Amino acid sequence: MTIGPTFMRRSLVLVLFLVMFLSAEARQQANYAIIKRGDSIEEVVRKAATVVPSPRQLAWQELEFVAFVHFGMNTFMDREWGQGNEDPAMFNPTDFDARQWVKVLKDAGMKLLVLTTKHHDGFCLWPSEFTDHGLKASPWKHGAGDVVGEVAQACREAGLKFGVYLSPWDRHEKSYGDSPVYNEHFRNQLRELLTKYGDVAEVWFDGACGEGPNGKRQEYDWQSYYKLIRELQPQAVIAIMGPDVRWVGTEAGYGRETEWSVVPGVARNLDTIAASSQQNPVDRSFVPIDFMSKDLGSRDKVKSATSLVWYPAETDVSIRPGWFYHESRDELVKTPEKLVDIYYNSVGRNSVLLLNIPPDKRGRINDSDIKALKGLRKTLDLTFGTNLMIAARVTASNERRGHSGASIVDRDSRSYWTTEESIESATLEVRLARTLTFNRAMLQEEISIGQRVESFRLEAWTGKTWRGIATGTTIGYKRLLRFPNVTASKVRIVIERSRTSPTLSSFALFKAPPTVMIEPRGGSFETKTKVRLSTDTKGATVRYTLDGSDPTLKSPKYSRPIELTHSSLLKATAVIGGDLCAEIEVTRFIRCLSVKSVGFEKTFSPQYAGRGNATIVDGVRASLDLNDKGWLGFLGDDLIATVDLGKARTINKITAGFLQQQGSRIFLPSTVTFYVSDDSANWRLAGELKSPLQQSERVFARDFTCSTGKMKIRYVRVAAKSIGVCPSWHSGSGEKAWLFSDEITVE
Ligand code: FUL
User: Fold this and answer.
1) Domain ranges across the chain
2) Least C-beta-crowded within 10 Å: which of 108, 283, 575, 726?
3) How many CB atoms neighbour CB 462 within 10 A?
């Protein structure tokens, strides 16, 4: 089912009405534009520039950073997708605290909380009158609990907006598949959520759809759902399978470099969205699926459109692998560094960031997630807390009356700069209060009158010439740019191309907290090695540790190259004015014999080829992230690696490391056998270790170490036996299993 034609008919009527009765100024307020056959590309682009967000879309966009909270039956079943037949007795949080969620999310800077009120398993987190499959049947609070109620209330108290995720796909409900009956049931549930819990700012529908018990595929009556939402909560945006907010197209947290909020009307075709909705959660955790088409709204994309709509992007991503909490994944929570990167690539790319923070079985947000969020907030505060534009003066090459260049640095968020009619490129020169060092920039367009800038660049005055700092295509609501430190007293923004008169409502420069550099970046050494630490910020000192603990103000201060004589985990951070102020840099150094070459009997998969053969002998250990290029992956095959030490050396220990992540079909080897040789023709057994297969959700790396006793040899062979295929209890039963290997060391 699609909504395209209906929308088009409606918008045609609307546009005709506007054209006939309203003034030119008011005509610019349309949320859609109809493209007539024969419209020139200039005309299409001009129309695109007049499409504006609806008030609800604008209010939502300004939230910038919002929370997704996946909590429900899956939390207790340790699953991502339930079947719908789970026993309600399983739902029993031991220490549920909605206020704790809200505090953690608010402290992180999030402005809205979207709760999974019902996931695909059909278990309702509120006492719905229309089903028994929910809290009423659970032991929690003797069946009298209401998670939705408590969360909505906690949000209200703290001034956070509240939103609901309600899965249309319901694997429990008997009427599912009997389309009209289920549609009525779904509307009833929606009505409960939209009438009993105060204001709702976002309703989130995903596209998953299946067959009901009657063997028929459910046809969702989207239009009737939308009508109900508009009637009961007119300020709420309807996201993903809805007309107001578009899925950015990936769940990795990275929006597009070129992100237009004005896109061809076809992007609202629900079938297209549903088709890209994933069907298998196991596969999904394995390969981050990326449906990103490079851009959706450039001239090339809009030129053949029949209508254009304001349809802004939302970037949804989870703080950990999977949407629900799994204890086995506590160590895989994204680092603050990764979250900062995601922030720049979502909020900083004209998109709202919907970051999922799943509470644990206690019903509280886990410490590992809190730690990561605090780290993110700290970096954002240190970066954006001080705007370097104080007392800056702006001159524009062209400005419209009442919209001077100065508007981009004043504190008034409603004032904006724009050019006179038909001026589509311009330069704004910004004279800073004094010479300053900065490495981040923020630009914002006045999107309430449309999105227009197509390309721009930023330059700094060196005293002699203008030097390029950064370039960009779209700006939209917000564009954040990162670049190495620049010290200057003057910068300029060059708008190279725009759809009609460009606008800017804000411009600012910032200095991100110092970063610490470790040289070399880890690796192996034979007897000793020297390591240098530095920071990019004047006045900052570096503190470090070598024992794996996090550096504090009391840790040794770096003054000269550190000499390492043992394998060490080096952690370093920077201090300014008595405050720890940088991300902690971590690097591992391994003391082992150097390797001349390594060869493999069976080759690793090109999909997980790390950095080539040397990956497993370069002294750089892989993280638990299977995509970090530190792993060599063998699909269904054993690892048989032969290491050449170059000449006969005295050894006494061989170690080989492997990954286990059964959810992604990666299993430890069943046996690891170590051989040694003087000539690579005659091999002697040095040792063998067995590892019986055990079902486990935990993600970890394990080292298999063979103590050889002192011996002099040149070649080492490690043979690790793959389990071959996934075992019968695994969802991929019978399919090839992966063996992931890193790192072989000889000491
Ligand atoms: C998807 C669901 O299938 C996932 O479980 C998750 O809720 C995600 C945000 O939306 O469609």
Assistant:
1) 5-383, 393-510, 516-591, 597-746
2) 283
3) 12
| Ligand 1 pocket, Cβ-based, cut-off 6 angstroms | 80, 206, 208, 277, 316, 323
Which architecture characterizes domain 393-510 according to CATH? Sandwich (2.60)
Residue nearest (by alpha carbon) to ligand 1 atom 11:
206
- The model's pTM: 0.83
Q: What mean pLDDT is predicted for residues 93-109?
A: 98
The closest residue, in CA terms, to atom 1 on ligand 1 is 206
Ligand 1: which atom is nearest the Cα of residue 316? 9
Task: Using most ligand atoms within 8 A of CB, pick from 206, 279, 357 the residue to mutate for ligand 1.
Answer: 206
User: b or e along 53-82 (b: 16 or more beta carbons within 10 Å of the residue's beta carbon)?
Assistant: beebbeebbebbbbbbbbbbbbbbbebbbb
Tell me the CATH number of domain 597-746, given options 3.20.20.370, 2.40.320.10, 2.60.120.260, 3.40.50.2000: 2.60.120.260
Q: Is the pLDDT of residue 566 over 60?
A: yes
Which of the four pLDDT bands, split at 50, 70 and 90, describes residue 265? confident
Please write the tens of the pLDDT for every residue from 194-251: 999 999 999 999 988 888 999 999 999 999 999 999 999 999 999 999 889 999 988 8
DSSP result, 465-520: SEEEEEEES--TT-EEEEEEEEEEEEEEEEEEEESSS-EESEEEEE-PPP-EEEES
User: Where is average pLDDT lowest: 120-124, 265-269, 603-607?
Assistant: 265-269
Q: Residue 274: its pLDDT value, please?
A: 55
| DSSP-H helix ranges across 293-404 | 299-302, 336-346, 367-384
* Domain 516-591 fold: Immunoglobulin-like (2.60.40)
Categorize the per-residue pLDDT at 269 as very low, low, confident or very high, splitting at 50, 70 and 90: low
